[in-house]
What we know:
By secondary structure, the chain is α/β, with parallel strands linked by helices.
Amino acid sequence: MILAANFKANKTRQETQAYMAVVESFVSANDISDTVIVFPPFTALEHISRNVLIGVQNGYPVQNGAYTGEIALEQLEEFDIRTILIGHSERRHIMKESQELIAEKFRFFAEQGFIIVYCVGEPLAVRQEGEGKLMAYVEAQFEGIDLTYPDLIIAYEPVWAIGTGLTPSMEEIERVHDALRLQTTAPILYGGSVKVENAGAIMALNNVDGVLVGSAALSAHDFCEMIAEAVQLNTDKA
Ligand code: 13P
């Protein structure tokens, strides 16, 4: 299983250090073999090696240059960052990132060999038009994306489920993941209002290879509980 915590614009540097101390000791004390990824804000990056993968929530697709306010490859390399989130709905909808820019980021960071967690997901109005429309919407979000990229992880995050406490039904999640599985062999995570109470059931579904968690993962304790649920499933699913 892959468990990823996306902090978004939350936590200070000091809070992130305290958080990492809890998660890292949990991972080593329990000999966790599942992949655990944390996406802190840029300001909390540190140049130390960890037993948990640290990724960034964004990056500008250049080595360096005149891109005011952006963080490029050179700055990420300074912190040995090799994992990046691309296509998150908050960047698509709030920051108005186009599919073209997203695909450019994908190409650039794929060429650099990054592990890419690539997010797709539909707004509520699209979901209400039925699963045919939903899949067509997601298909468009794959434009310019190499679904055979070996270090690709897909995250299916319905926009209306993010930060709302709402989730699709287990059957609905499974149907979308089954449909995505026909297009790629990459691991497929589910994201959107995942919490301790539903993480186990979601991870137990067919073609769900893990979770991408926002608000509920801000608690290190809760995130560790979700990791423990994944460990439990490894035995059940095997
Ligand atoms: P929530 O878990 O807060 O719904 O956020 C999900 C998300 O956007 C993770 O990337």
